[in-house]
Amino acid sequence: MTTTIANASTAIEHNTAFDVGPRRETLPGYNYAFLDELSKKAIRRAILKAVAIPGYQVPFGSRELPIARGWGTGGLQITLSLVGAGDVVKVIDQGADDSVNAVNIRRLVERTAPDVSTTTETGLASIIQTRHRTPEQPLREDQIIVYQVPLPEPLRPVERKESETRRMHGEGDYSRMWVALYEDIVQNGRITRGAGYPVMVNERHIMSPSPIPRWDLPRLDMARNLSLFGAGREKRVYAVPPLTSVIPLAFEDQPFTVESFNGLHCRRCGSDGSYLVAIPDERGESHYVCSDEDWCAARVDAQQTLQEGQGAAE
Amino acid sequence: MTVSERTTIRSNGATAPDATGHVLSVEGLTKLYGDGCPDCLRLTGPETETNSCPRCGSIVACADVSFELRPGRTLGIVGESGSGKTTVLRCLYGDMPPTSGDAYLNAYAGGQRSIFKADPQERRRIRNFHLGMVYQNPRQGLNLMISSGGNVAERLLAAEWRRVDAIRERAAGLLGRMEIPLDRMDQIPAYFSGGMQQRVQVAKALANGPVVVLLDEMTSGLDVSVQAGVLDLILEIQREEGIAMLVVSHDLGVIRLLCERTIVMKSGRVVEAGVTDQILEDPHHPYTQLLVSSVNS
């Protein structure tokens, strides 16, 4: 509810106000949304800077959390520093809402921020924390998506030194990144990067979109929602504000392409326009289903409603 | 902008002189290492035969170096080791910032604004679009672990070429001109001989159609026959493409072959400047006399 960046600051004010009538008790001995208020403020400041410079990696003091670094601590710190009364949080783990990691993160938010509720439905969420996927359903301007990022530096494969990659970003000196893509094409006939494909943000900064498949990248370009990226282990946050260009790096004669499923469709909902993953059945054969489980479930529901409606009409 | 459009603009830019007729003019270029003191410049230089200030210990790598370069011409910089030749090139190329001084490139802001006043992002663009550099050691100018084609491509990609086929065509053409066999285009230069590496570096420096190419002792590490071959290629390409060159060398033979005009540096200062033949036949400054006589004897 309270989630464009302007509204996020409204949420910020609510954070300290406990007069909203919590539905549950906060865990005794813990602050609202787990982190102390100064930490959350510091993280929100880093986020504001990130929003002001799209695609630029802002360093921040990553806090200790009750989950290990590398398990979504960057995303979780952003989520915890943003949630306020009335927010609805959804947590996605590779398209699924029911993995142990997703459930535990949701539970932590529920237990430490009693006036925040959780959901698995994309359309109902105000903050969506995700790992490795962007929901198939386009997000609205009142939604924030928070990506968990393992490796925030897209230039790391071509340059090991942090001081040097920061200089390269500062000067827009991206030729070595382009050479790496060129060499990939020369040696393999195409760009072989899959997840975490580098993108140009706002025609200025090259950014790692976190390990989401290429399939998800077109939905980042000029999206109506705010996208935030948190890397807890690497201590960086960065952002793509609403209506900002996000263009995958590609050559004019070797255009960017998304993954192709060659006419396969989802076994559950029949979709042939979503990102599919293979799952083995009891006999050991592979079947394809939507990776975005909420998207798939919503389609199945709609089809059932339609069938029931038709049945009733007859 | 398409690649072909850019090519036209480039070749125009390379030959069209500005109002003053210079592609590059350098004024008062000074580079100090250390904090510096008011007496640094007075207490160093050719008279005192030192680069290091006796007062504060700062090193005056070069001071008050000024010269002009006309389109398609070649200027030589000679001088002994440590006289500040390479410092001048590296400041111009943007490898390091000068302490003071200005340099005007007619390809940047119409030659109205010093390239040393440009912000780091603009500096990078000037270097990527208008300059080329050949270092003494190929290790500095090339990434030996990516293919020679990729090395040339890096300059083209930096100058925002975005078509793989056009990049490959241009890289193959340049490497061919430099007599690198085409089947070695996709090999890494780490496996090349020193002369071949240096020729790849020249191809790389010329790739983006620069207005000025900076050559830093590029033949010093090569044997004489290879030297001659590389120099011939450079002369040929320069004549065809009308690129202006700044050649740093302590080898007077190279200077005599390539440069119409020459400046002589000693202890960070320009001690003599003029037409190359005149300097070599009738040197005025005692250091130049020493330099010329030690070669002739």
CATH top level class name of the largest domain in chain A: Alpha Beta
SSE pattern of chain A: HHEHEHEEEHHEEEEEEEH
Cα-atom radius of gyration of chain B: 19 Å
Using the coordinates above, name the CATH class of chain B: Alpha Beta
How would you characterize this protein structure?
Chain A is an alpha/beta fold. Chain A is 31% helix and 16% strand. Chain A has two domains: 5-155 and 193-248, Rossmann fold (3-Layer(aba) Sandwich), CATH 3.40.50.11310; 276-313. Chain A has seven helices and twelve strands. A seven-stranded mixed β-sheet of chain A has the order 1-9-8-5-4-2-3. In chain A, helix 4 (100-112) links the parallel strand 2 (88-93) and strand 3. The relative contact order of chain A is 0.14. With 297 residues, chain B is of the alpha/beta class. The termini of chain B are far apart. Classes of the chains: A alpha/beta (314), B alpha/beta (297). The interface between A and B is medium-sized, with 18 and 24 residues.
Brief summary of the model shown:
The complex is a heterodimer of chains A (314) and B (297). With 314 residues, chain A is of the alpha/beta class. Chain A is 31% helix and 16% strand.
Features:
heterodimer; A: alpha/beta; Rossmann fold; 2 domains; three-stranded antiparallel β-sheet; 31% helix; globular; B: alpha/beta; six-stranded mixed β-sheet; 12 helices; 9 strands; 41% helix; disordered N terminus
Topology diagram in text:
The complex is a heterodimer of chains A (314) and B (297).
Chain A: H1 5-16, H2 37-52, E1 58-59, H3 73-82, E2 88-93, H4 100-112, E3 117-118, E4 127-131, E5 144-148, H5 162-171, H6 175-188, E6 199-201, E7 205-207, E8 226-231, E9 236-240, E10 246-248, E11 276-280, E12 286-290, H7 293-313
Parallel strand pairs in A: 2-3, 2-4, 4-5, 5-8
Antiparallel strand pairs in A: 1-9, 6-7, 6-10, 8-9, 11-12
Chain B: H1 3-15, E1 24-33, H2 40-43, E2 59-69, E3 74-79, H3 85-93, E4 100-105, H4 120-130, E5 131-134, H5 138-141, H6 148-158, H7 164-177, H8 194-206, E6 212-216, H9 224-241, E7 244-248, H10 252-258, E8 261-266, E9 269-275, H11 276-281, H12 286-296
Parallel strand pairs in B: 3-7, 3-8, 5-6, 6-7
Antiparallel strand pairs in B: 1-2, 1-4, 8-9
Helix pairs in contact in B: 6-7, 6-8, 7-8, 8-9
